[in-house]
Amino acid sequence: MSRPRSARGNAAPARGAAQGRGVFVSAPKSDIYVVMLAVALGAMFLGTLLMVMLMSRYDFKVKPAALTQPAATAQLV
After folding, report:
1. CB-based contacts of 55: which residues, under 8 Å, 6+ apart?
2. What SS3 state is found at 38?
3. How far apart (Å, rounded) are the C-alpha atoms in residues 64 and 76?
4. pLDDT tens digits for range 17-68
5. Can you list the alpha helix ranges (DSSP code H) found in the chain?
6. Is 9 helix (H, G, I), strand (E, B) or coil?
């Protein structure tokens, strides 16, 4: 549930505003959810940056190179 932006009848009209023309709504304030969104955005940016740095080591090749020799299989005795 979201909290109401202003209570009806309790908000004072802005200075210079005409009486009865619209409803004065104050700007919403930041809360913990806005901070959590900012932290998540920063984590996604940091993760993307680290991924690009890691992929640059491999020249941005995502497919593995073909093996020249097949891997040796272990023999059970």
Report:
1. 62
2. helix
3. 29
4. 556 678 888 888 889 999 999 999 999 999 999 999 999 998 988 887 776 7
5. 32-57
6. coil
